[in-house]
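We close this part of the discussion by returning to an individual protein. Part of our work consisted of pairing the sequence of a single chain with a tokenised description of its backbone. The amino acid sequence and the backbone structure tokens for this protein are reproduced below.
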Amino acid sequence: MHPAVVVLVYVPVAIWVGTGVSLLVAFPRSAPGVVLRLAAAFLALWAILATTTLVWVLANGGASGVMTLLRSPLAIFEPQYALLWAAGALGAFGVLAIAFALNQLAGRGFLHLAGARPFSWPARLPAPVVRTSLLAYASDRPEAFSFALLEMTDRGRPRPHRHEVILLSQGLLDRLSPDEVEAVIAHEVGHLKDLDGRYLTFFRTLARMMRWDPVLASIAASLTRREEYRADDAAVALTGRPMALARALFKCSVDPPGPSAAGFAASFLGPGGRRGRGETVRRIERLVALAESGAYPPPSGD
């Protein structure tokens, strides 16, 4: 086989391994934009590997192909299967495109069905640079979340741009004081500033589409957990009120009534369930520790 074809097979695998190593190194210490972009590249290459493996198994007799691959895992990387890699790449592109489309449709559909209404931007928080809609919607569940929509026109001109959305439920607004609502909005601003609205919601949608893939589910969960801590820190830096955010988390976590209304986006309380409640407790403990550190003197009323 021509050497160029061999390179076409092996170079992407080397790039994928290198991206995975870079992601592991960057995960604990790098900025969210770096980590999320590396995760996007890693998962895109992982999708190619996963879909190519599926195509290879089907092309080699299904069950017998699985047995062959178990005996010789490197067989899939033999140069004669370059066309199968091309088919896998096309399949992966299709899956990623569908996940992106579903994520956008879910966001737009939720806004339409929820009947969201504009909510006043807090005076103490700086106005967002990127177009951002702060909206409230009718729901008894105390929750907030954010995501980004791709718009194809900007001020009447046909050019793509981001439209970022922060949603607050009426249950959250009824349960929290104004400074606690401000802290929650600052938390969501931290998500949007760190690109979570573009990447995390997409990763969550992709993970729901590919439930059979534990690697994707684990990466999405780890990234969600990491970015919740990052958004908490961003909110404290913006407001100087760690206890306001801690109180908001506590009030919203007390007996939450059922599943989140928006499964496509990460809620203010995280993933939910027993693991989500444990993460909420750890987040509250971190915020209390910040308040007790003396770095953020409590304003009057805190």
Q: What stands out?
A: The longest strand covers residues 161-169. The chain has ten helices and four strands. The beta strands are 117-118, 132-137, 144-151, 161-169.
